[in-house]
Write the structure tokens for this entry.
Amino acid sequence: MISGYLARNGLEGRIIATIVLILAAGVAVPVSNLVLDPSHPLHVPTYIVALLGKYLTYALLALALDLVWGFCGILSLGHGAFFALGGYAMGMYLMRQIGTRGVYGNPVMPDFMVFLNWKELPWYWHGFDQFWFAMVMVALVPGMLAFVFGWFAFRSRVTGVYLSIITQAMTYALMLAFFRNDMGFGGNNGLTDFKDILGFDVQADTTRAALFAASAVALAIGVIITARITGSHFGKLMIASRDAESRTRFLGYRPEMVKLFAFTVSAVMAGVAGALYVPQVGIINPGEFAPANSIEVVVWTAVGGRGTIIGPIIGALLVNGGKSWFTGVLPEFWLFALGGLFVFVTLFLPKGIVGTLQDHIGRRREKRQAEKAEEAEAASAAEPTPVGAE
Amino acid sequence: MVERAGTILYLDGVSVAFDGFKAIQNLSFVLKRGEMRAIIGPNGAGKTTMMDIVTGKTRPDEGDVYFNGTIDLTRHDEADIATLGIGRKFQKPTVFESLTVADNLSLALAAPRDVFSVLFARESSGRARRIDEILEIVRLGHRREHVAANLSHGQKQWLEIGMLLAQDPKLLLVDEPVAGMTDAETEETARLLREIAATHSVVVVEHDMHFVRELDVKVTCLHEGSVLSEGSLDHVSSDKRVIEVYLGR
Amino acid sequence: MTGHHRKTSVAALSAALAMSFAVGTAKAEDTIKVGILHSLSGTMAISETTLKDAMLMLIEEQNKKGGVLGKKLEAVVVDPASDWPLFAEKARELIEKDKVAAVFGCWTSVSRKSVLPVFEELNGLLFYPVQYEGEESQRNVFYTGAAPNQQAVPAVDYLMDVEGVERWVLAGTDYVYPRTTNKILEAYLQSKGVAPEDIMINYTPFGHSDWQTIVADIKTFGSAGKKTAVVSTINGDANVPFYKELANQGIKAEDIPVVAFSVGEEELAGLDTAPLVGHLAAWNYFQSVDTDANAEFIDAWHAFIGDESRVTNDPMEAHFIGFNMWVEAVEKAGTTDPDAVIDSIVGVSVPNLTGGYSAMMPNHHITKPVLIGEIQEDGQFEVVWETSGLVVGDEWSDYLPDSRPLIADWRAPMSCGNFNTETGKCGGKGVD
Amino acid sequence: MRLAGPLTFAVAIILSLAGVAHSQEKPLREIVNSFAEARNFNQTEEIVAELGATGDPAVVPVLRALSEGDLHVRKSDNQVFIVSGRGKTLTIIDPLTGEMVGEEGKRALSKIRVNNGLRRLIRDTIGGLALGSPDPAARLRAARTLISNPDASSLPAIEAALEKETDPEVAAGMMRARAAAILVSERPDAEKSEAITAVAAISTQDALSLLLGFRGQATGELREQVDRAIARVERVQSYWAMAQNVWYGLSLGSVLLLAAIGLAITFGVMGVINMAHGEMVMIGAYVTFVVQEIIRTSAPWLFDWSLAIALPLAFLTAGAIGYALERGIIRFLYGRPLETLLATWGVSLILQQAVRTIFGPTNREVGSPSWMSGAFEIGQLTITWNRLYIVLFALAVFAVLLFVLNRTSFGLQMRAVTQNRRMAAAMGIRTPRVDAMTFALGSGVAGLAGVALSQIDNVSPNLGQGYIIDSFMVVVFGGVGNLWGTFVGALTLGIANKFLEPYAGAVLGKILVLVFIILFIQKRPRGLFALKGRAVEA
């Protein structure tokens, strides 16, 4: 049913399969966790649900990055900032939900404000007790930041490496700012000790399952949005401005606006990913703004295959799965493994796993086409038609 | 000197310098509506810089640049100028390598260029037909769905000319269209340009004298950023100064 | 070529898998697993790796003594990589997947805050060995490091009484531990009659490395004719450049002493201490403490790590105490069941390394002596002062207005981490 | 106890000035040996006071040794000795004669413990004794100590010393010390008024605090005079503070320059985004550590030369690693600058973890040679030697690099390859070799930076991480491909940071600088010193 709807909307089969797979996982994992007996071989333990839920939000983040990097050529080294801002917006909602259950029992102010002797709630915390308001902020804050940042940067034609480095400066500045206790976001400790979300206990298995499903749905929607954008005429324009920006200008387009749009959409997606991430890991702190985190996102995307829709998802799942596994099994060596992976992928799989596979398939098809074209060319050479004679 | 009205392109007293190097010095150049003009000149004569000025990539330090007699081009940027109706083909063929031939043309087709129009644009049958027509003209019909990166050099040149046609500009600036082409291809390109010139104003920059001869139009020779000589090819090529700096003795 | 790579990577993968299985099969059914949750990479590895090693040593020694409840202990080491959400993930993995009986771990407050909900939800046990800001008491956590009243307040007392300090610089890294400690100290100093203009508070970011301006400010502040001291809650890596600048700008301990709460033997190992002789640190343990228990511990540590030059420090002692308390509580309860251990551990008293006993209090904090040490040329501390008796860790500071009425008692009838003595109600979760 | 200090101090001065031979009641050695009986700091303090009261310059080495923790008691016979050396056996020295007595195991000795209070007392006592010292420099030092720690009770001693003083410079110092002491004494207003003028002329922070302290008790005309004097001193102080900020800025800027200049080559000239640049710096620092470690164990007398030895080694080590990196990875990635970022990020993780595995995760100690320790003053500008040397070193590295790039054939080849690779290759330049050497040069310079940074920062596996973002900011701000841009960029950012810090605090200052850079890049997308021209756009 879903696939039929998607197909009618002009999505490729591969994308449809991905979406169906994500949604199926979104249903199967929670069901297995909640319904099956723990001894059942197909039972998914809660800790795996939490883990996978986290990976899904990472996948959405990687997909968001891919939209700007893979398709638009903007290598953002600051996408972690949008993710974190979305996370903070969600975290602020969750903090307000604690109410009197904080250690000091203050009905309005979070604990960290109480023990630092804050007298009243800062103005920017107002409204976050409403879920809808927080959700608007989840999209709006990263979106606005991306819009303003992009508006300046793209109009000034800051490109390539320069853009990458100022995005890094942006997330670094935000990290320093959020580390400050005076900012009113809990400083280094960030926001934590969440109790419930929309009235449900965040620690309950059912809530976890629901959050997992929500993450799967969000990722599926992300895939649809990305596929629709990149598959449209606009997507071609994105690729055009990625490959030859000034050429698009001479065709009368404004590539800066193309980039700005993609950057803003991508930031909103990253923000949503962050918002889903926070209740599942139970904490948001300025470490999420660290430039290293943003670079890691780039790596997931590169490993999976940038410029493809499935690539970043696979990359995020693979690298993070590997990280979880290595930090448990070979804790001293996981950095070697991670570092080695980066080097290996850039050297030997420049298009990432999915990109390389696609190339492989594409080349075969191309070969067949080329053969056909040669035949056609030979045929047309045989009977020359005067050019432009019509 | 010349009346601006009635011209498609009007440059008067234009100068531009980069870090002290004067790329264009007091250049005046006039192109009438419907005219095709060939520009020749040695390397560094300012041919490409002149095109940069006309298309808004470079702003002149002084001088007037008018399009269609009334539009001051120095006040517009590249995208504006392109929408006004000036198309440009680059010296090095610049097509969108990872897109198909058809997509390249589709992007060039005249249509609203703002983000949201593009975002919700649909491929109509009218557009597809127009693409087919152009493909026919530039002889790339059999390459329709191929990625542009796999085209030969000459095919890329033609694709770019095709994109110019799709853009349907009033004025075409064509920079070295036959570089790297075989003689046969060169002849066909010349024929194609003449064809286009019947309905458009065209400026062609080219080194290939054989090709310029084929075009059979008025020639302007630039040197050190100003006009050195102007007239028929025979007139220009017999000019002593042109021989001195460009054609060689 | 791709084929070749695939083959090698498959080989590597299966080798690694085989290794993990080998570890897995070695796990006999009759062992008790103990989780070690310390960062082995990233920024905190610098401090936490030592604690992982210390825990491995303690577990090995316990096994030599026959283990616990007749079963061998088995360490499960994971690397949360100085990544706070990863701490939560790894904690969950330890409790839910590896089914460890207790976890020893965390260093930074934020890592503890990150794992707290996990321990609460899954009813695990966490022994937290580092001095911290207090303002917390959780049923599943045992705080074996110092609370502010076991470190900061006595240090200030020492400076005031013995060195006659009247003017104070509270310098810290901008995070919750220094913020809270300084709030407490500010209130404490003012209660002792120190004028607000005689207190200068300064915060710097993590890893701050250019201390020129701040050290010059301290120098200026200190030349107002009153005896001045610096109370430093500067964290981690920022200390080395701070002390280097201090030494180079010629601030000697006899002019402006600096008392630090985050600088121990391990941190001094990375410093030339000759110009720093006389600067102070407040801890509950120093390697230089001359007791038999300590000598034994140091010898064991050197033997275990195979390096005579490795130092011991306060958080290691905290793990030593915490581990022994856990062992005794398990033996007492006859089971590793968390609820039983939580009940049996309160009141358990074990020898510490400074020649006395430390006991687990109902608020899940422990009793400790407080020692003030001066930095020596050899990178060790020399104890110049110590509290006459043991100090009970105070989870809710009396110097912060909102925490003054709170107490914690995890014994049966009350069983509350934030009981409000004014309202007579448990403020947070639990009994309503 | 707090009273005891100044009092005995004054007594000591008077006695020493009067030229009284040490009191005969108790032989000096007996007093010295009584340290063995001291049970706590108070008792030790009394003995120090007693020693000071003898006025005998012979006690100075004893007191100094006590202050430095080198005075030990031999457990077997309760004899007190000065010890020297490290390790299990120590050389023991007679405290009064300074003769070597022999060697003793560490366990046979016990150290006489000191604390800060004792050290202060000893410093003052030695200072007092020094006022009568035959060495004019020592007398001047003593006078300076008295300005910083004025004490009314020392006034007679100062005046006595002043009368005998022949050296004009020392006399001026003593006049000031006297003025400082008068301000805290009960002398008549006329003398105090003079003293205010004299103290105000010193214009130091000490003088200011003295005047501020005096202001509280001043009345009438004196009050007005002191207010004027304070205003004057504060004005002078604010100028010096400004100068001090400039110096701090230059010093921070030179650190940034050192960290960034290698990057200006690899990134600016070659276009390689080398995220492992910070790790090259770290490797330089670890080379310094290894060199010092070897020197410590096998050739301690070379310690002051350790940095000089480390410099070429650090350059070669980091350069060699850079060379290997270029040959092994980067050369496959030319033309894909953003991918060099990923690969080198991976390399940086590997290098960090490798260093962590080899040297352990903790900080390693890198000492400062004696010529890099401490500070000196120009006027009221305190300049620490290590910062000064780092500024000079940064300038030297910069100058050498400029020379290499602009005046050597390698530099010419390098610039040729950067500007037009194909043309350079056609002219017979072996471009791959030039690439590798350029990258090695950039990395080697980072290694040099590591030697310098080991003097002011942690030597830990995380060292490089702290500098990588700042380095990129400097290079991008200054303008890629231009060493002068990096130079101006580094110093500008350093000074801007230091001028913001006092007002905005260290964190906000840094944030403001970052925001400024982001905005600046919008205005000038190619940095401060961008190469203008008909840059061919890809």
Remarks:
- The CA atoms of residues 297 and 353 of chain C lie 8 Å apart.
- The longest strand of chain C covers residues 31-37.
- The longest helix of chain C spans residues 2-26.
- DSSP finds twelve helices and 19 strands in chain C.
